[in-house]
Structure formats: C-alpha cells, structure tokens
Amino acid sequence: DLAAGMATGKAWFKVPSAIQFVLKGRKAPWISGKDVILHIIGRIGVDGALYQSMEFAGEGVQSLSMDDRFTICNMAIEAGAKNGIFPVDEATRDYISGRVHRKVIEFTADEDAEYTDVIEIDLSALRPTVACPHLPENTKTTDELEHIDIQQCVIGSCTNGRIEDMRIAAGILKGRHVAEGVRTIVIPATQEVYLQCIEEGLAK
Predict the structure, then answer these.
(1) Which of 49, 92, 119, 203 could bond 197 through an S-S bridge, CB–CB 3.0 to 4.6 Å?
(2) CB neighbours of 37 closer than 8 A, spacing ≥ 6?
(3) Gap between the Cα atoms of 163 and 169, Å rounded
(4) Run of H or E residues at 184
(5) 166's torsion region: left (phi>0), alpha (psi -120 to 50) or beta?
(6) Hey, how many other C-beta atoms are within 10 angstroms of the C-beta on 147?
(7) Is there a contact between 86 and 96 (Cβ–Cβ < 8 Å)?
(8) Statement: the pTM of the whole predicted model exceeds 0.70
(9) CA-CA distance, 192 to 13, in Å (whole number)?
(10) What is the pLDDT of residues 130-170, one digit of tens each?
C-alpha cells in the first residue's frame, strides 16, 4: 500500500459509516481532550468504532481547544476508527489563518446524515482518566486508582506533546523535582512546540 501510494499518490479506502458523539456541557479546567477520548474508548472499546468515522458534534465542542480536538481525532484510531472529525467553527478558522495558503473548502455533515449510533457525552461529568494495562479501553478515573509506584513518565508524543500540555506539565513541576528513581522523558510534538518551550522558558 505504501509503495502504491508513493507511486500514484492514491490509496484505496472504503467509505466508512459514522458514529456521532454529541458533546454536551463544558469540561472542568483539569479535563483535557485526552480524558474525553479515553472516556469514549473505555465506553465503546478498542473495536467499538471499527472502520467507522467518529464524528463529534454538539455545543460541548466549543469548550474544546484545537489541541484537545487534535488529541481526540489522533486517538480515534485506538477505538478502531478510520478517522475522527470535528465541525468547522471560528476556533478552526482562527487556527488555520496564516497556516494555510490556499483556498479553504469547508465541509459539513448532511442534515439527513445517517449514523450507526449516536452517543451523548456529558463533558461536565468527566473525571481525569488514565488507560491501564494492557489496552486503551481499560480506563479508570484517577479516584478509582490506588497508589501506584511508577518508574517512567513520558510527557509528550503525538497526542500530548502540544504547547498546552507542556505549559501544564511545567506548571505542575515548577518548584518541584522528579522523584528519585523515575525516568522522565519530554517529547514536544513538533519542532515549533519545542521552540515555544525554549522561548517561554518551559524547557528550563
């Protein structure tokens, strides 16, 4: 598939069916896009959206930053999905302004679009959530976990290496030290984020 894509610029895909996730309410300050998608994966399972499109809608979308939305879409694959899609709004337009130098075409779901399932998520009810071994669907809220000794901590990656994540991590670590015996790795998602970390003093 990779060779064919490189040679022709094309790939074969079956048009997926869609599941609509209607986001309601507003998330609490310490809840991130990662908590939202882990809650969803814990609810539907790692194959709950197999070869389907996960489409997010509802007034709750407004309370999600672009970084939150990127994380949710990025992790849709962990539920077996082919993709994750958010509606275009002012936050989207502001984000792409100056980043995209060609005509932008906006797409919206048809009013009579059919979904294999419609699932409501109350963002205001979500708690900080983690995925325990050995699958992302084995989710627990932090208040359900007992004390766990860890040996390694990774701050970053494709889903949590954005500037918002780095600011939160730096705020938590300010004036503190990583515990002895814990290896801590910080991986900014892009070179731009890495440079922002340096310029804002977060790296230090």
Answers:
(1) 203
(2) 71, 72, 75, 76, 78
(3) 10
(4) strand 183-187
(5) alpha
(6) 4
(7) no
(8) yes
(9) 32
(10) 998 888 889 999 889 888 889 999 998 877 888 988 999 99
